[in-house]
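Subject: Sanity check before I submit

Could someone independently write out the structure tokens for this chain? I want to compare against mine line by line before I put it in a report. The sequence has 130 residues.
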Amino acid sequence: MEVPDADDIDSAFDGIDRERPEALLLVQSSMFFTERRRITALVAKHRLPSIFNAREYAALGGLMTYGASATERFRRSATYVDRILKGAKPADLAVEQPTKFELVINLKTAEALGLTVPPLLLAQADEVIE
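---
Independent answer below. Compare away.
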């Protein structure tokens, strides 16, 4: 579903309710991140298993998150700032892709949804919220 702006989030969930999906995958968006509390509340209200891109969603009650480590991205950003402050031209710096990804699983949410998370997946998680 397309959600052009924050005012459309509630109606998007009404549409999701009509479609009856088995799960929700939320794509990365600064608007969604800003509205993360509202979105995780709606996901819980509509009882949707969900996966997001940032650990903050799982901390707020989303089922799981998988995405580039924010901590590692900030560390790499600091390296770029250091180079620029030492005279490097930003246009000359290579573009880097994330190399560290994090999997966070919220077991409280899994239990509330009546889901069992396989032990192998739990063992691979960087963080498990119990």
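---
OP: Matches mine. For the report I'm noting this point. The two ends are 31 Å apart (CA to CA).
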